[in-house]
Amino acid sequence: MKVDGRHTRTLWLEPDGWAVGTIDQRQLPHRFVTVRLETLADAAEAIRSMLVRGAPLIGATAAYGVCLALRADASDRGLATACETLAATRPTAINLRWALGEMTAAVGRLPVECRVAAAYARAAAIADEDVAINAAIGRHGRALIEDIARRKGGAPVQILTHCNAGWLATVDWGTATAPIYQAHDAGVPLHVWVDETRPRNQGASLTAWELSQHGVPCTLIADNTGGHLMQHGLVDLAIVGTDRVTAQGDVCNKIGTYLKALAAHDNGVPFYVALPSPTIDFAVVDGIREIPIEERGAEEVTLMTGATADGRIETVRIAPAGVAAANYGFDVTPARLVTGLITERGVLPATREGLAAAFPERAGLRAAE
Questions:
Q1: Where on this chain does substrate bind (predicted)?
Q2: Binding site residues, as ranges?
Q3: Where are the alpha helices (DSSP H) in 152-218?
Q4: Is the same domain home to 314 and 345?
Q5: Do 249 and 186 fall within a single domain?
Q6: Rounded mean pLDDT, 170-198
Q7: Is 275 left (phi over 0), alpha (psi -120 to 50) or beta?
Q8: What is residue 366's predicted lDDT score, i.e. its pLDDT?
Q9: Does the residue 133 lie in any domain?
Q10: Cα separation, 213 vs 223, whole angstroms
Q11: How confident is the model at residue 368 (pLDDT cuts 50, 70, 90)?
């Protein structure tokens, strides 16, 4: 998508052809900073520290992390160490483990001297596949927006989103934002309500930034505003992303998603989840009981970082010193609250049957395992 009017991806090979470049998302929206990843440790720390974040981008970064590891040690031990190190960085998003499985399958049976080149080829393919998948999600989701626009007679379609499921969370296009970008680029009048998404404020710092960069009309709101907007008819549909979807359609996404889904259900607002197929975990059925929920440091709740009036970036405490704080990163929205799943193969019902019918090759593989 666009940064200062220029097309930009979140992940790329540097001119030397082996190091990996990416955007330090911790610096946004105040600074646009790119970093160079050269080692397995660099890639693991980038994922762990949320320098990169978003399930699809984490997966693509992990794939390149394997490449960087194999440059140093292409043995079986080196491959195993790379996968173990990267898998330990973030527990919730399934794309990470999917990508590591893809990389292992691509190089595991090859002679050691062939592994580095094969790894870079598969990592590049994973990145390009992500772009193509998200573009397809955009086409299917755009049709939903266009249908509402026709019924509204040209009035802007009001869309609510939560967290950042934008191009910054993927290699390009985004998941939840892909339909928005494609509809906007096609001239469909629309407006996006952007949840701030405490405690890391990915909506305020990332979604609002990237929508503004692309010229999409948007308004930042406090996390607890969505229900009020829905009660007053100011939201036509909600579109969010996800870090893992179970075989029966439960959706694990950024904390607060469940509350938005409840409000949407109570007010008759369609609630859609946009996802690439690698985010589906056919090995998990009950999302509430089976998906591990990442718990992050209390400082993300008690501290906040922002820009001062003179341009300095400062971190300040917003809670009493020493107060205990819980920081659950994700919650699970039951399938019954999901209007539809927007995938690269169409808009699906959030059911076991709907997912298995659309992705039989993956559902069958998991069943066999």
A1: 53-55, 90, 202, 253-254
A2: 53-55, 90, 202, 253-254
A3: 178-185, 202, 208-213
A4: yes
A5: yes
A6: 97
A7: beta
A8: 52
A9: no
A10: 22
A11: very low
CATH number at residue 335: 3.40.50.10470
* Reported confidence tier of residue 285, pLDDT bands at 50, 70, 90: very high
272 and 360 share one domain: yes
Q: Is the pTM of this model over 0.90?
A: yes
Domain-terminating residue out of 76, 99, 128: 128
Q: Is the pLDDT of residue 127 over 70?
A: yes
Burial of 73 (0-12, 13-18, 19+ CB in 10 A): middle
Tell me, what's the pLDDT at 369? 46
Tokens of residue 298, six digits: 């209390």
Task: With respect to residue 208, please indicate whether it lies within any of the assigned structural domains.
Answer: yes
**What would the pLDDT profile of 43-98 be if each residue is shown by its tens digit?**
999 999 999 999 999 999 999 999 999 999 999 999 999 999 999 999 877 899 99
CA distance 58 to 44: 10
CA pair distance 49, 89, nearest whole angstrom? 9
If you compute the radius of gyration of the chain from its CA atoms, what whole number of angstroms results? Answer: 20
Residue 112 burial class via C-beta count within 10 angstroms: exposed 0-12, middle 13-18, buried 19 and up: middle
Round to whole Å and give the CA distance between 191 and 193: 7
Which residues share a beta bridge with 37? 20
Burial per residue of 220-234, b for 16 or more beta-carbon CB atoms within 10 angstroms, e otherwise: bbebebbbebbeeee
Q: Structure tokens of 164?
A: 């950042």
- Residue 22 is assigned to a structural domain of this protein: yes
Helix (DSSP H) and strand (DSSP E) numbers for the chain: 14, 18
**SS3 (DSSP) at 217:** coil
CATH of the domain at 87: 1.20.120.420
Task: Determine which one of 243, 250, 281, 331 is catalytic.
Answer: 243
Question: 37 in a domain, yes or no?
Answer: yes
The binding site for substrate consists of 53-55, 90, 202, 253-254
Q: How many domains does the chain have?
A: 2
